[in-house]
Amino acid sequence: MLKKHLDEVNAILEKLIALTQEDIENIKVAKHDTVAPSVEEKNKLISEFTTAKKQLDASLVELNNSSTKGLSELLDEEDKQKLDLLKKNLQTLHTTNKEYAKFVLIVKDFYDGLVNKMFNLNDGTNNAYGDKKTTPESIFKINV
């Protein structure tokens, strides 16, 4: 049972890593039509991960409570390798998410600068939309 939970958690993490890496590549080529489906898929995977992680935790607690030996003595070599893979996947996801966040911030800053120039906000110049009744919110909304 423990092996099944470890496999499930690792598979979900690997999907999240792959999706995030794909998102980074899509940002690089300004492929914006993939953002909404990707966010939806990631939210689904995060929900699945939460459930699978709770099941894994319960299995580990049950195994630990079933014996007076330490958990490291109860796990076989395959379980230990899968736990190491889990740790590696979590670290990889963290690193990949940090990289993704940098790209998102760059795009956000670009759009903020563009809006400032278009509407002469925050000392922007080249007010292309001279109608002072127009607000950035009335033209478009940015979801980051």
TrEMBL record:
Alphabetical list of Pfam families matching this protein: FlgN
Lineage top rank: taxon: Bacteria
Keyword list, A-Z: Cell projection, Cilium, Flagellum
GO biological process: bacterial-type flagellum assembly
Name of the protein in question: Flagellar protein FlgN
Species this protein is from: Campylobacter estrildidarum
Taxonomic placement: Bacteria, Pseudomonadati, Campylobacterota, Epsilonproteobacteria, Campylobacterales
